[in-house]
């Protein structure tokens, strides 16, 4: 067996800056099918990093760094569930103050569904929270733009595979913009990294872990005794035809392709398939090798976090471990993190099952941040069942959050001077409790549902101060409102739930509620006028019927001394369904 490679050297270094909240534009590059010697510059993280932005929340002052903590060092312990050990572990990065994270990206051949949205919202939350704790994070998320599914779809549409994939990569990026997922540090594509993939396959072959059959190269799982360490599967469990293609040329049915020849056994080319020259002849890489090569190119063989959906544990991540270790014995990922499925009627949502909803389809009816809130309302490792009632509930909840903060904004704009620096003890208690709930829950394996539930107390306190007779009489009322609004805003920023404008988000939520109800605002105002007239005439039966008819389609009427207004709500039949289910 040949000498094992000690490490994968980057070609270039680049300085990384802090990541802005505004999402950057994407530049698409041209691709070369047949020049493996053309290497794009590789930007290795952590060569000379600029410190990340300061944490948004501090238990003592809300907006200042802890005086006892050095800049760039983490502000609290973080526990993450490691799929490899099957337990929660205290997070300790390999390099103090810095985190390398690789998340497997989409295979770009169609619009992405909300199962994809869950993956990337989950790791966006982790990315944001690591940055909040003070870590400098290099977040690498790839695009698979060379794959059997892409080639098959391209043939259906009579389109070039790389062009097709480029188009859907761009569509995916737009989905992530709407969901307020921060752009990763690097977004490598398979077609740009063919030299690195070929180099790694050569090393695996040289080290005795792979073999050539005609123009194909297969990884030999029997030569890697640790195979199955992540998934817990035994080699004999990997039966032919399950997850791995049946091929009589393989030494073991579980062996998987590192390189696929672009020519058939009769030496005729496979029509419509992109190919690259290699030591084994023209071809293209197998699926699994790409992530091993690209993660090594940007993060090295030893880095902190590797993530993805639970469906990637086997075979993809299991095969990645085998490949990377076969190429470099020092290969090591400290934490393997996987999110649970989005299910429909207790089945995993997937394109192969045909039971999926694209992100675009959902965002056509629901605000993107309502979808984000829905995805964060269940712990990331648990399955989440897609349902209209949960999306409606998320939409109603986020409207309430933004309406409360918008009311704060209006009141505070009238008192922007002369505010005292102190706040009443009862307000400070609410703030401290909320901060502690946030820090404790997020540091306990990202328990976002607990944080979202903890928003209730500060939001209720704000509404009491703004709208109740007792609250309006409280001392330092405006100071309390300002302090509460600030910590809520900062927590929402860490969670990726802060809109550009409260008023704009509220208007968008109203418009989407109208679309779901198949009504116009003029029609609702007409119904409000009819109801007011009925009440004047003491026709309460008609008045109640109008209110109920609107409630059925998700429009709630609110009476106040200033008149009647409306807001989005969970449609009455879905509310009744919720009650029946409890």
UniProtKB/TrEMBL annotation:
Keywords: Aminoacyl-tRNA synthetase, ATP-binding, Chloroplast, Ligase, Metal-binding, Mitochondrion, Nucleotide-binding, Plastid, Protein biosynthesis, Transit peptide, Zinc. InterPro entries: Cys-tRNA-ligase, Cys-tRNA-synt_Ia_DALR, Cys-tRNA/MSH_ligase, CysS_C, Rossmann-like_a/b/a_fold, tRNA-synt_1_cat_dom, tRNAsynth_Ia_anticodon-bd. Transmembrane segments: none annotated. The keyword Metal-binding applies. Its EC number is 6.1.1.16. It comes from the Eukaryota. It holds the Pfam family CysS_C. Residues 437-506 form the Cysteinyl-tRNA synthetase class Ia DALR domain. GO terms for biological process: cysteinyl-tRNA aminoacylation. Its main location: mitochondrion. It is found in: Mitochondrion; Plastid, Chloroplast. GO terms for molecular function: ATP binding; cysteine-tRNA ligase activity; metal ion binding. Its cofactor is Zn(2+). It is an enzyme of class 6 (ligase). GO terms for cellular component: chloroplast; mitochondrion. NCBIfam families: cysS. Belongs to the class-I aminoacyl-tRNA synthetase family. This is cysteine--tRNA ligase. The lineage of its organism: Eukaryota, Viridiplantae, Streptophyta, Embryophyta, Tracheophyta.
């Amino acid at each position: 067996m040949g000498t094992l490679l000690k490490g994968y050297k980057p070609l270039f270094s680049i300085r990384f800056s802090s990541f802005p909240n505004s999402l950057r534009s994407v530049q698409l590059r041209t691709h070369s099918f047949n020049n493996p010697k053309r290497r794009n510059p590789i930007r290795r993280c952590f060569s000379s990093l600029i410190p990340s932005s300061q944490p948004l929340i501090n238990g003592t002052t809300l907006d200042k760094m802890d005086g006892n903590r050095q800049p760039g060092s983490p502000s609290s312990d973080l526990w993450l569930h490691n799929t490899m050990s099957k337990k929660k572990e205290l997070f300790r990065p390999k390099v103090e103050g810095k985190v390398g994270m690789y998340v497997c990206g989409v295979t770009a051949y169609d619009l992405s569904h909300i199962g994809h949205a869950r993956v990337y919202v989950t790791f966006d939350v982790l990315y944001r929270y690591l940055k909040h704790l003070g870590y400098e994070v290099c977040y690498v998320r790839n695009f698979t733009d060379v794959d059997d599914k892409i080639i098959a779809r391209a043939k259906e549409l009579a389109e070039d595979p790389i062009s097709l994939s480029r188009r859907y990569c761009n569509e995916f990026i737009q989905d992530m913009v709407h969901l307020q997922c921060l752009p990763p540090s690097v977004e490598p594509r398979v077609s740009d990294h063919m030299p690195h993939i070929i180099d790694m396959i050569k090393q695996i072959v040289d080290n005795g872990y792979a073999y050539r059959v005609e123009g194909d190269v297969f990884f030999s799982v029997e030569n890697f005794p640790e195979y199955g360490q992540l998934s817990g599967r035994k080699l004999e469990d990997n039966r032919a035809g399950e997850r791995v293609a049946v091929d009589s040329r393989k030494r073991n049915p579980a062996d998987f392709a590192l390189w696929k020849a672009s020519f058939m056994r009769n030496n005729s080319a496979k029509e419509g398939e992109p190919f690259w020259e290699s030591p084994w002849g023209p071809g293209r890489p197998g699926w699994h090798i790409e992530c091993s090569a690209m993660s090594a190119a940007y993060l090295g063989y030893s880095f902190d976090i590797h993530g993805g959906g639970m469906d990637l544990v086997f075979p993809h991540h299991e095969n990645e471990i085998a490949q990377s270790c076969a190429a470099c014995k020092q290969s090591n990922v400290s934490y393997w993190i996987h999110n649970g499925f989005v299910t429909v009627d207790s089945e995993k949502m997937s394109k192969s099952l045909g039971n999926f909803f694209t992100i675009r389809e959902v965002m056509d009816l629901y605000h993107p941040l309502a979808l984000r809130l829905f995805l964060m309302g269940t712990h990331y490792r648990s399955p989440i069942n897609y349902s209209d009632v949960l999306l409606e509930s998320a939409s109603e909840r986020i409207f309430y959050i933004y309406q409360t903060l918008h009311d704060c904004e209006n009141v505070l704009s009238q008192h922007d001077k002369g505010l005292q620096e102190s706040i009443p003890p009862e307000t400070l208690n609410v703030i401290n409790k909320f901060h502690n709930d946030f820090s404790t829950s997020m540091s306990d394996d990202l328990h976002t549902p607990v944080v979202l539930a903890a928003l209730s107390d500060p939001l209720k306190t704000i509404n009491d101060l703004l709208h109740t007779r007792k609250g309006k009489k409280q001392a330092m009322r405006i100071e309390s409102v300002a302090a509460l609004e600030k910590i809520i805003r900062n927590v929402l920023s860490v969670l990726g739930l802060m809109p550009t404008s409260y008023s704009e988000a509220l208007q968008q939520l109203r418009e989407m509620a109208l679309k779901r109800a198949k009504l116009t605002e003029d029609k609702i105002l007409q119904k409000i006028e009819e109801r007011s007239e009925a009440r004047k005439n003491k026709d309460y039966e008609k008045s109640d019927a109008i209110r109920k008819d609107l409630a059925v389609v998700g429009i709630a009427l609110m009476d106040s001394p200033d008149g009647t207004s409306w807001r989005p709500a969970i449609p009455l039949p879905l509310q009744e369904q919720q009650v029946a289910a409890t």
